[in-house]
Structure to design on (629 residues):
């Protein structure tokens, strides 16, 4: 009997209860984690299909089905409602086996507040249902800001937040008025009608009608030159050049002047890139690409459909037309959904001939180029990370290394001893697993004793957590300590390595320990392993990774130590003593191993320090006698 048939029998009672209605189903594993979210016209038929013998549905689905411990479902009034709910659940939970849109970007818009009596032109990341007019989305925030700046220069519109006309005359005009970049409606220097004419010109510009403004600027430039107003002529010349540059960036793609998005993808066996061209008023205003994970190589149409559903569930602007690369199964349903969201008819089309088909093909070529380029970048990144880890494993004669932990100790003459633990997995820092240790059992500058405490606490804690999980019969890890490293990296040579080995031996833990040895100039020179110092090629990726890990452990320890020093009482207590400034405080900290020793020092012991005078020694002894030791 196959596994799928066995699972169908185990769920037999629940499957019989499934309604023959539209809705959303949710698959969960034994830890109640959501594995997959899907929609169905008929929940009964759709959910049952997962537990039947079905050849060809792919290993990912088979794996998912094997992990299902239970399922639940939500009935909806229509398939359209199921589509919306499915999108919301996928976005909220990011299930492992759903094809997921990796990017979560918001794109910039130009917002003209035409609902105000004296409108402004603003940068916006959202498109709200208000009285304003929106232009976009644009792919470049910098381009949007440049365009807004140009429009304000051209039409001298206000940029302030004053409530007009209520606040007219309440304050003096701002600098923009004096440099002739604002008409100062705040002072009623311009009528509402004249100001509105300027706003209308800006709207014409944003709609792509550049000819009138270009002609006007050219005439003003010539007139200023004829009147020998060369500075004014230069200003109009520069504005003319800026408008010309903006107009040339807009490429006509459709004589109809409609809003549309052109969508195509390229994919391999692991991931896909979807390329979107944004066409507004017939002009290509920008393009963006998006990564999709958990894709099926033989289901490009399905990947495209998943992208459309997830992308347009989150974007505030929906164009009149989507030009896509492949036919999709739920085209009519998605058209209906998008039309409701847009408040107007939306069409999904697959162009077969002509310029539209070529534009879709161009988007697909761009997607292929991006994926190939990123693949090369990923290969280089892999060399710096996984490749570097493999180099270290070969050098040490170890098998596969996945997780490495490095430790360091930081103090200033024994004051506020702290330890750091940094974690690297597959050659990359896993900062969520970093840990800090405030040393409890050591006073004074004893790095070996401090390291012994840090390592003991780290591994004892991990063993205790693992026992708790085992008792509760929970398989997952719930802390960074439960997962032990494949390699321990110590910031030092033989001494630190031996401390680590002795701690591991006492706890009956078998983990390889390697020391990161530095030269006299405090630069990494090699690795100490199995009582031998191994030279490392300083140009290799393995060496560079070791250096990064050592520097990171040191940085993390120093950072923690500094944060404690800013809070500690060592500095404040000594500074409270009359006559003890920074120089004498440092001298005391150099001479004595801890604050406790300073507190207990006699007058004669204090006078052994050259910086401490008889009067200063007397002040110290008196201070601690009065405030208690």
């Amino acid at each position: 009997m196959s596994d799928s048939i066995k699972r169908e029998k185990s769920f037999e009672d629940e499957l019989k209860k499934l309604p023959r209605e539209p809705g959303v189903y949710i698959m969960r594993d034994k830890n109640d984690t959501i594995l997959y979210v899907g929609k169905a016209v008929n929940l009964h038929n759709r959910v049952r299909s997962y537990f039947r013998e079905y050849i060809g549905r792919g290993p990912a689905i088979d794996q998912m089905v094997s992990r299902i411990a239970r399922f639940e479902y939500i009935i909806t009034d229509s398939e359209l409602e199921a589509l919306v709910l499915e999108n919301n659940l996928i976005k909220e939970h990011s299930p492992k086996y759903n094809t997921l849109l990796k990017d979560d970007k918001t794109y910039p818009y130009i917002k003209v507040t035409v609902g105000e009596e004296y409108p402004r032109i603003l940068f916006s990341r959202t498109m709200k249902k208000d009285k304003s007019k929106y232009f976009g989305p644009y792919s470049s925030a910098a381009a949007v800001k440049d365009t807004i700046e140009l429009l304000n220069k051209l039409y001298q519109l206000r940029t302030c937040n004053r409530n007009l006309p209520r606040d007219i005359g309440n304050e003096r005009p701002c600098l923009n008025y004096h440099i002739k970049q604002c008409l100062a409606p705040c002072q009623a220097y311009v009528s509402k009608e004249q100001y509105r004419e300027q706003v209308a010109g800006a709207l014409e510009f944003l709609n792509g009608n550049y000819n009138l403004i270009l002609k006007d600027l050219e005439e003003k430039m010539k007139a200023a030159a004829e009147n020998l107003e060369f500075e004014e002529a230069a200003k109009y010349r520069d504005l003319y050049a800026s408008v010309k540059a903006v107009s040339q960036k807009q490429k006509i793609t459709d004589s109809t002047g409609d809003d549309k998005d052109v969508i195509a993808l390229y994919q391999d066996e692991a991931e896909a890139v979807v390329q979107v061209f944004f066409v507004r008023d017939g002009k290509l205003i920008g393009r963006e690409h998006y990564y999709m994970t958990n894709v099926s190589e033989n289901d490009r149409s399905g990947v495209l459909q998943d992208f459309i559903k997830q992308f347009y569930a989150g974007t505030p602007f929906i164009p009149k037309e989507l030009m896509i690369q492949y036919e999709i199964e739920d085209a009519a349903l998605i058209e209906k959904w998008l039309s409701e969201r847009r408040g107007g008819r939306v069409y999904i089309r697959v162009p077969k001939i002509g310029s539209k088909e070529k534009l879709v093909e161009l988007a697909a070529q761009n997607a292929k180029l991006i994926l190939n380029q990123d693949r090369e970048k990923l290969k280089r990144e892999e060399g710096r990370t996984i490749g570097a880890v493999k180099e270290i494993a070969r050098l040490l004669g170890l098998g596969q290394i996945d997780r490495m932990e490095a430790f360091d100790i930081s103090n200033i003459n024994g004051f506020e001893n702290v330890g750091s633990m940094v974690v690297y997995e597959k050659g990359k820092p896993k900062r969520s697993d970093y840990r800090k240790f405030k040393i409890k059992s050591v006073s004074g500058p004893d790095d070996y004793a401090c390291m012994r405490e840090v390592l003991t606490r780290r591994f004892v804690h991990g063993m205790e957590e693992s026992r708790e999980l085992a008792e509760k019969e929970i398989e997952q890890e719930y802390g960074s300590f439960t997962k032990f490293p494949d390699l321990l990296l110590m910031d030092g040579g033989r001494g630190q390595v031996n401390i680590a080995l002795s701690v591991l031996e006492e706890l009956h833990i078998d983990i390889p320990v390697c020391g990161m040895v530095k030269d006299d100039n405090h630069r990494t020179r090699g690795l100490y392993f199995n009582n031998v110092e191994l030279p490392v090629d300083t140009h290799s990726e393995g060496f560079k990774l070791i250096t990064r890990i050592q520097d990171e452990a040191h940085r993390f320890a120093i950072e923690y130590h500094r944060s404690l020093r800013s809070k500690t009482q060592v500095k404040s207590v000594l500074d409270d003593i009359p006559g003890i400034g920074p120089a004498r405080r440092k001298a005391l900290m150099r001479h004595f191993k801890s604050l406790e020793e300073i507190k207990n020092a006699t007058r004669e012991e204090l006078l052994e320090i050259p910086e401490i005078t008889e009067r200063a020694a007397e002040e110290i002894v008196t201070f601690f006698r009065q405030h208690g030791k």
In short: Residues 354-384 form the longest helix (31 residues). Confidence is low (pLDDT under 50) at residues 249-255, 567-571. The chain has five domains: 3-98, 109-208, 260-381, 390-559, 569-627.
